[in-house]
Write a structure and sequence with these properties.
Length: about 240
């Protein structure tokens, strides 16, 4: 059985930390939650756990420890996944931490070349596929006219005392998303303690991303009770899509 020497230990640990740090540099540059230190520490931890299993001399231990590392990173990744209105943030960060742990395991196993190749693959995904994904998001949907205009209605119910503030935020959010309001109507609810606002907008291009941005922004306001939108040619359905 191969005995783990101090030189081997240091080389593998340094490689694992360096690979994690390279991944973290890109994350830090984009100001993500898990940056340089976090990815380097995740890779270092994964490397140290596997190195320990080799140091104790159990031939089957490294593979078992590697499987435990995968499970442990799952809990760590769950801590960076956050709900943001109707969407979820942190999935990409959690996946990146998982990859940092993977390159650490490769480095600890002595597969230094594979660890470096894995690091390069992660960087390529972030640097190349990110702009490619944005181009796909901007591409018009199949069978749709990118220059066509769609009319949609945003329905909002808020506390009566917050009506002025919420109305201003609604118009500001619509303008910030590049939407052109064509009408705004307000009325008191039956019980009189709330106000119902209905804004009609004209949208050119994809409808859902622009409206979801508005809904996500306004749903964070404490005075908002109900918020949803629908297309003019669809029946009004407060549950599709909706934010309570």
């Amino acid at each position: 059985m191969h005995t783990l020497t101090t030189v081997d230990f240091l080389v593998r640990l340094a490689t694992g930390v360096a690979c994690g740090a390279l991944i973290g540099v890109e994350r830090q540059w984009r100001a993500r939650m898990a940056g340089l230190r976090t990815n380097a520490l995740v890779a270092a931890g994964a490397t140290l756990f596997v190195l320990y299993s080799e140091a104790v001399g159990d031939a089957g231990s490294p593979t078992r420890v590697a499987s435990y590392v995968v499970s442990g990173i799952g809990f760590l990744g769950g801590g960076v996944i956050l709900r943001d209105g109707a969407g979820v943030r942190g999935l990409n960060t959690a996946a990146t931490l998982w990859c940092s742990a993977a390159v650490g395991v490769l480095a600890a196993s002595g597969k230094l070349r594979f660890a470096v190749l894995g690091t390069l693959a992660v960087l390529v995904v972030h640097l190349v596929l990110r702009p490619a994904g944005r181009l796909l998001d901007r591409a018009p949907q199949a069978g749709s006219d990118p220059d066509s205009t769609t009319r949609a209605t945003v329905h909002l119910e808020c506390d009566r005392k917050s009506e002025t503030h919420i109305r201003a935020l609604l118009l500001q959010a619509l303008a910030g998303s590049g939407l052109a309001p064509t009408g705004l109507r307000a009325r008191r609810t039956d019980n009189g303690d709330a106000t119902s606002l209905r804004a009609t907008v004209a949208i050119t291009g994809q409808v859902a991303p622009a409206l979801e941005q508005v809904v996500t922004r306004l749903s964070l306001e404490p005075g908002v009770r109900d918020l949803h939108w629908h297309l003019e040619d669809e029946p009004e359905d407060p549950g599709n899509p909706a934010l309570a």
